[in-house]
UniProtKB/TrEMBL annotation, chain A:
Short name of one Pfam family: RAMPs
Annotated PANTHER family: CRISPR SYSTEM CMR SUBUNIT CMR4 (PTHR36700:SF1)
Organism: Myxococcus landrumensis
Coiled coil: none
Annotated stretches, region: Disordered: 48-82
InterPro entries: CRISPR-assoc_RAMP_Cmr4 (IPR013410), RAMP_III_fam (IPR005537)
Record's keyword terms, sorted: Antiviral defense
Basic and acidic residues compositional bias, start-end: 48-75
Keyword Disulfide bond listed: no
Highest rank taxon of the organism: Bacteria
Protein name: Type III-B CRISPR module RAMP protein Cmr4
Domain CRISPR type III-associated protein: 8-298
TrEMBL record, chain B:
InterPro entries (alphabetical): CRISPR-assoc_prot_TM1791, RAMP_III_fam
Domain CRISPR type III-associated protein, residue spans: 77-262
Pfam families: RAMPs
Protein name: Type III-B CRISPR module RAMP protein Cmr6
Keyword Cell membrane found: no
Organism: Myxococcus landrumensis
UniProt superkingdom: Bacteria
Name of the encoding gene: cmr6
Annotated keywords: Antiviral defense
Amino acid sequence: MESRAYLLQALSPLHVGTGRSVGVIDLPLMRMRATGIPIVPGSSLKGVLRDSRKHDSDKARSDAIFGPRREKPGPEGDQPGEYAGALVVGDARLLALPVRGFVGTFAMVTSPLLLALARRDWGGRMGGGEVPGPVAPLAKYQARVASLKNSACLYRHDGQPRVYLEDLDLEVENKDDSVLASWAEVLGRALPSEERDMLMRRLVLVDDETMSFLWETATQVDTRVSINPETGTAAQGQLWTEESLPAETLLMGVMAATRAWHPERKLEAGEVLSEALGGPGTMLQLGGKATVGRGWCRLLSWQSGGSEGRR
Amino acid sequence: MRNDLRGLSQALEDGPAHAGLAHERYAPVKDDLEEKESPWRKWLQWMEEARVPRDYTVAFSRWRESLRQWHTASVTVRAASRLLVGHGNASPTGVGLTLHHTWGVPVIPGSSLKGVLAAYLRAAFEPAEVEVACRRLFGVPGDRLTGQGATTGEVIFHDALWVASPVKKEEKTPLMLARDVLTVHQKTWYGGATAWPNDYDSPNPVAFLSVRPEGRFLLALSVAPGADAESVTLLRWAGDRLCEALSQCGVGGKTSAGYGRLTAEGEVVVNPPRAVSRPSPVRDEFKTWLDAQREAKTEQRKVLEDFESEWLRRLSTLPLGAREECAQAMRTLVKKNPKLQERRDDLLARLLAPSTSNH
C-alpha cells in the first residue's frame, strides 16, 4: 500500500458542518471528537473527487479508482460488489489557521500537536528529503516564529516581541526557530513559488492550549438571512449563523492506494494516487453552501516522489 | 479595547492592519466630544486610513487564476456610490460592515449577490418568462405533495472580492473605507412611541463606516467543468442580469437612498475551463537541465544537439500540455538567432506533433 500526503487550501470560507447544534452557532463546523480539531471528512473529499470525473469518458478507470457505484441508494443497495475501490482518502485536519491580527493583517497559526499529526501523515518520510523534525514544546501563552527579522506579524514593545491575535497578546520567544522555518519551507513546496514567501512570513507557532482556544473562537461566523419574497422581511425562522474555516486555511491529510481491484482495468498504486491528486483540476468545491461560493478549495500535493511513503 | 493594544500605537499609526478586526475590537466608547478631543471621532478617522494589505495582490491573482479552472462568467464592477453590506452585523458603531474575514478588505458575499439576482428577476420579468431559468439558477425545495424532488442551483455565486490594483513599491495602496453619517430626526417615533412624529426631537447623528465609491469588485459565477452548452448560456445570461440588477437596484443596505450601485466595466466574459499544469518529473527534470545550460552558458548549437539526442524521445511521451511548457522553456533559452531558429522550430514541431505512442 502506498500513501501520499495532501494539502487542502481554502480560497473561500469552508463550511463542512454537522448540520445542527445546541450551542450559540446554529451551524457549527465538524470537528474531531477527541481533540476538537476542525476536519473535512475523507468521505466528503472522496465524493467530490469522484464527482469531478463524472464527465470522463473512461468510466472503468474512475470505477477502478473509486470503486463500483451502488445500484440502489440506501441499505438495500448494500450488496457485495465485484471488486473494491483502490483509493483510501483520509480526513483532512486543520494544519494552520489564519487568525486576524492587529499587526500584519493575519497570522497562519499552528501548534506542536498539529505539526506532530502532519508528521504522521507523511509517514516520517518524504522521498525528496527528510520530514522536518518535531518542534520544541512551548510554555503556556507563548509563541514562536521562524525568523524574528522576516515575520510580518511581530511588534516589539519595550524590547519584547509580541503577536497580537484577535483577543490574545502572546509573547514571542526572542530567538528564531529553525525547525519551524524548515516546516514552512517544506509546506511551501506544495505551493506555487510566489505564494511561499507569504507562508514563511506569517507562520506562527503557539502552544496547544492557545491553539485549541483559537480554533474554537477565531473561526469565521456569518449571519445569514432568507428573505420572504411576499413580505420583504426575514422568513419565519430563517435567520441563522454559520461557522466556517476562513479563506487561507490549510488542512492536511493522507491518501493511500492499493493496486486496482478492477478485473479489466489494471492500475498500480502509484498511478491511482496520481490520478486522484491530479484530476481534471485542482479546484474543488467542498462542504456546504456551495452555490453561494463556500468551500472553494485547492487540492495540492508535493511533487510526486516528494512525499510518498510505502507501508 | 484592551490595554495591551495601547502600546501598539506606533504600529497602528498608518491605519489598521486588519480593518475588520479593528472595526470589531478596537473601538473606544462612543462620545459627544468635539472633533479634536474625541477618541471616538479619532478612531473613525483612523479607520478611514485602512488600506489594502500588501500581500493581498498575490492572494487576488491566485483567486482569479483559480476561477479559470471552471466555466466562469466574470466581470469587474465599480462602485458608483457608497456601499454598505452587512449593516445589521453586530458592531460598536451600531452599523455593521462586511469585510473579508482573513484580509479585511471589503467584499460582497455570494449569498447577497444570489439574493439580489433573485429579487431582480422577480421584479423585472413575468414569472412565466424566467421560471425555468430561476429553477436552474436557484434550485427548488422538494415538495412531498406533488412528489417533486429538491434540486440544487446549478450556478455558484462567488463572493465578489475587492480588486487589487497593482501599486509601485513606494506608493501606498488605495484606501477602502469612508466615514459616513446618518441623522435620525424623529427618534421617539422610530423608538416605538405612541405619539406621532414631530419637530421637537433633537437630531441624532449616527456615524459609521461604508465602502468608498470607486472601489472595484470581481464578480464571478461558475459552473463545474463538463457542463453542456446550455448551462454555459445560462451562466452568461445570469451574469448579464446580475450586472443589470447591481446597476439598477444595487446591493447591500440603504439602496433606497442610492447606496450600493455598481456598474460593470466592460462585458461579462465567459471562460471555458483551462487545464492546470500537473506535476511531471520528466518535465521538471528537463527544465532543470535547461536552467543548468543557461547557467553554464552552453553554446546554443550544442543545446539543440543534446535536446535532439537525449530529450526529444523522452519528452514525447508527455501529455500535450506538458510538452507545450517544455517547448516554451526551450524558446526562452534559444532566442532569436537567424542561424539556429529554423533548426529549433523544426525540433519543437517534432516535439509538439501528435504523439504516436498511445499511452
